[in-house]
Amino acid sequence: MNETFLRPEHGEADWYDARLPRPIRPHRGHPLRTLATVTLVVLLAAILGISSAYVIIEREEPLNAVTIGPWHAYPKAGTADADPYSVAIYTRGAVVPLASGEGLALVARKDSAGHLLDPTCVYRIAGQTPSARLWTLTAVDGHGKLVETLPGRVNLASDSLLRAPDGSFEIMAARRPHSGNWLPLAANAKASDGLRLVLRLYDAPVTTGAALDGVSMPAIERQGCP
Length: 226
What we know:
alpha+beta; Jelly Rolls; 2 domains; 6-stranded antiparallel β-sheet; 4-stranded mixed β-sheet; 2 helices; 10 strands; UCP009471
């Protein structure tokens, strides 16, 4: 039998022939070079993953927020369904979120016009809140820490508010005393310190995202700044 039909005319070695065009010529990389490339790719992927996680955690704002006007709620924060990033944010800030059976916390970082809250300004917080056995309104700095105020307190409670006949209220948040309902802000704060308003509803039926649909929340209006 003719050997021409038994042996292929071209073998595998012909693919590495220098006469072949470079685009179709297979490349046999050096083992050390291949190892270095793989190591570099893995290292870059690790750096990218760690950096992205750090950026999310550093923003100090949990994910999966329910937005109602200037207020943001995180119904899953104190449950087993909380996402890992939000858990890391709370852990890093040493914050224990309210469990679903305890209540719900809503945070405002901007006023109703969309401007970042400034501790040197005066704000009018007016309207109504969802039903709750008790709620508190607290002023903290941009990192969620308590501040020093002139009267030594940083919050108001619903059981000590002056209200209108329809149950609505008006609160003035400012560094200096105001008549009526006054929420003290940091006495010696700078604009760069930041400001957050935290409304905590205790023993409230609105502890899930679905229950928050259509509820009424107080507006936050800037009255003036130095």
